[in-house]
## 1
Amino acid sequence: VARVGGDEFNLLIPDITGREDAVMIVSKIFDQLKQPVELEGHEVFVSFSIGIALFPQDGASMEVLVKNADMAMYHTKSHGKNGYEFFSDNMKGLFQQQLSMENGIRRALEENQFELFYQPQVEVNSGRVCGLEALLRWHHPERGLMLPDDFVPLSEESQLIIRIGNWVLEAACSELKKWIKTGLDDIILAVNISAAQLQQQGFVKGILEALKRHGVPGNRLELEITENVLMHDMDKAVSRLRKLAAHGVRIAVDDFGVGYSSLGYLKSLPLNTLKIDRSFISEIQSSQDRNSIITAIIAMARELNLEIVAEGVENEGQMDYLKALNCCKAQGYLLGYPMTAKEARHAVEKHKRC
Ligand code: C2E
Ligand code: MG
Ligand code: MG
């Protein structure tokens, strides 16, 4: 056994006849590592990822074997840790892709290829723009405009999401400051927060410092977090979000209704807003069943004193339905596409004048 890095170990196992032998040894390692470790009276669990390369089929030299085992290990890691994988040739392609994407993101951060677009959130009754959601866009030098679904999930695996998240927060707060300066001082800015960000040590401090740096009050910022992320480490989420709420920062549950979660968390978290997932809105007028879900969510939100944003409103029929239900806010292509900061400012100012 050799320790090759901070938390990386190589295990050279001679005298095995095939994959089964390797699996048997890996199972033994699992059994050992699954045991909690006691640290100053606390039980601590370690997570681990194992990659396996076999001689000679996966490499005839030590260098190649170790490199391929490493690649298999990263593969395991990207599938949620606590497992093992054997090296396979097609990992090379995936690994290359991932590597070039990661390098691309690093360059994007250095060369300012990211931009925030803003999509209006509108009061259903008055039509007034009351908020904007910041949505990340990447002007990729070769691939053109890229949407977050093409790179955010991948960046979450490599922790690059933390750097992206910091960039987003900085850009959002600096834009918010401009709005306040130009008199748009009742617009709320919503920013999406990923799992890795919420779990990061300096999360609360980072947000409070960004607000302070730009001189914007906390109650103008809303953090959008999905249910599953909130549920993942409930205790941590509660304590961190309460600290932020104490500074006025608003919290919204994003994509509400599609996660697998108990509703109990709605009471323990300092929430302001539920964003009803687009899938429910898109079924309005086509399924009685979904419509009753929306009705129930709105009733529940009212009871819990939470605001509602209906996501993905695309036609007048949906808007009318939401009006009839007294839903307070809506967001979607009908009311405005995600647009550049300049366009968003114009849109809000125009609304103000009418
Ligand atoms: P989300 O937070 O639920 O954002 C709403 C998504 O729905 C956006 O996609 C928006 O363009 C799209 N959308 C809005 N109205 C409509 C509509 O009427 N119809 C349809 N079909 N779609 C609509 P986008 O910008 O591609 O973002 C996708 C997801 O990526 C977001 O979902 C959010 O989870 C994530 N994301 C975006 N920006 C960031 C960011 O800065 N940081 C992190 N961590 N995630 C982000
Ligand atoms: Mg969102
Ligand atoms: Mg959403």
Note: Residues 114 and 138 are 5 Å apart (CA to CA).
## 2
Amino acid sequence: MRIYRVKDYKDMSRKAANIISAQIILKPDCVLGLATGSTPIGTYRQLVEWYNKGDLDFSEVRTVNLDEYKGLTEDNSQSYRNFMNQNLFNQVNIDKKNTYVPNGMAEDDAAECARYSGIIRALGGIDLQLLGLGHNGHIGFNEPNDVFDMEVHCVALTQSTIEANSRLFASADEVPRYAYTMGMKAIMQAKKILIAVSGEDKAEIVKKAFTGEVKPEVPVSILQMHRDVTLIGDEAALSQI
Ligand code: GLP
């Protein structure tokens, strides 16, 4: 694993954007696995800036997102589809037809999970997967469990995730209780993984994740088994390792 220890959120964002843009330049039709949350916002902003300068071309890029809340329509301001449109897709020359996010309004969970797995398979897997990290060790919405969930699945969010994510909703009651998420198989089969962490509040889980035992109670710890992981963390988030 490669670790970049950077000063702060801004440096983390620039470094992550550097790696993503290198991927796009090396393989213009690459498949990017993308994440939501506060962590990647600065990274997307930096990519948009470089696109506006003429340094990046997204016209052939394909993207597949990690997850989506169940029960939110695409245009709901809290949906991850909306997040991606606002923060990246609407601001660059990507073809929206080449961007995939699970359908939060699907009626049949099993069918939606099978459909999304089929999309990832048809894309030929992921070249570079960007990840953030939940305080309880989740990646995507792979919550702590007694087994690693390998396939795309519909998951009941834990109370701690509902509380953590309630900051973006009017109240905790409004946070959806379920989500669709990519499983560990698609994440672990990505050729490269880039995980970004920022802030003191992530320091403890970063330590467990990368220096502790590999176990499904700490889902992110599975990354220790991947051969090409880059961790970019600011000083606060890496303060315990
Ligand atoms: C959400 C997302 C994750 C994300 C995590 C951390 O629950 N499903 O993909 O990594 O939160 O979010 P943040 O970056 O805001 O700390």
Note: The chain has one domain: 2-125+134-202+224-234.
